[in-house]
Specification:
Layout (H helix, E strand, L loop, with lengths): L12 E5 L6 H9 L20 H5 L2 E4 L11 H9 L8 H7 L15 H13 L5 E5 L7 H16 L3 E5 L3 H7 L2 E6 L2 E6 L1 H7 L3 E6 L6 H8 L11 E6 L2 E6 L3 H13 L6 E6 L2 H9 L5
Parallel strand pairs: 1-4, 1-5, 2-3, 3-4
Antiparallel strand pairs: 5-6, 7-9, 7-10, 8-9
């Protein structure tokens, strides 16, 4: 890490985003007491997560992708067992119903699907009524119904005053749930703020279109440059997937006309075009780059 500062407030969902190797997992593990930081200080609910682990365990819920749960135990039995460790746990049948655990209550953990394990891991993280909960990819592998049930539960936690720290690679999940977003890369916080603030701070609009794969994006960008409202601006046209193109910038009606003329002159068929607001995914890719790591 390189001087990374992170604060998560009560009654908010704080999304920590970053590409693989950015440092977000290391940071969260330090907060959970699973790793000792090389420097600096970590305080969770005012306590040191390593020295005060016993006291914190009753107040903090942790959902890990690799939960480490005993695989031979039935799902609902595992949740009931964890509930007995807390003084005032949530109602187990109600929590199980909210997350649809009844469908696989008698199934051993080793035989659960990835999405079912995620739902069980979330229930275990929440059953103790934590004041702070760390959620690592909470809806990974889930079907749409389960995913939205999880999102609704996370919103309820926030409304109850729980501090929720969310790590996810799903930008729509972060955009839907987060009150505050922290983008981490190379061990540093490179941007943070509310979703609307981050999106508004980026370029005005995004033009997306579909056409023949492999067109000359540099030539197209040069043709579109005179249509932008800022003189001398250099638009960036990218092809994130074959035949799918993105132009970020202050798109004007003249930009659309120039795009149509350029493609028509080259016999390229535009199969779709759309102009919309910037998304959190657009901002994330602009900040961290589009190359694989």
């Amino acid at each position: 890490m390189d001087g990374l500062d992170l604060t998560a407030e009560a009654g908010q969902v704080t999304a920590v985003l970053g590409p693989n190797g950015a440092g977000k997992t290391t940071t969260i593990e330090c907060c959970e007491g699973l790793r000792t930081p090389d420097g600096g200080s970590v305080r969770v609910l005012g306590l040191d997560p390593r020295a005060d682990g016993r006291e914190l365990r009753a107040q903090v819920g942790v959902m890990l992708q690799d939960s480490g749960l005993p695989t031979g135990v039935r799902a609902l039995d595992m949740l009931r067992h964890v509930a007995t460790m807390y003084a005032a746990p949530r109602d187990v049948p109600e929590l199980a119903a909210r997350l649809g655990l009844g469908d696989f209550a008698a199934t051993t953990i080793r035989r659960l699907s990835g999405g079912q394990r995620q739902r069980l891991a979330l229930a275990i993280a929440l059953v103790g009524r934590p004041s702070l909960v760390f959620l690592d990819e909470p809806s990974a592998g889930m079907d749409p119904q389960s995913r939205h049930a999880v999102w609704e539960l996370v919103r309820e936690l926030r409304d109850e005053g729980v501090a929720v720290v969310l790590t996810t690679h799903l930008m729509d999940e972060a955009e839907s749930l987060a009150d505050h977003v922290v983008v981490v890369d190379h061990g540093k916080v490179i941007a943070e703020g509310g979703v609307r603030d981050l999106v508004a701070a980026a370029a005005d609009r995004t033009l997306r279109f579909e056409a023949t794969p492999g067109i000359d994006v540099a030539s197209l960008a040069a043709a579109l440059a005179p249509t932008l409202p800022t003189p001398g601006a250099e638009p960036v046209v990218q092809e994130p997937a074959p035949g799918e193109y993105v132009l970020s910038g202050s798109v004007t009606p003249e930009t659309l006309a120039a795009l149509t003329a350029w493609t028509a002159a080259r016999g390229v068929l535009l199969t779709s075009t759309s102009v919309g607001r910037r998304t959190l995914e657009d901002v994330f890719l602009d900040l961290t780059g589009r190359n694989l790591r």
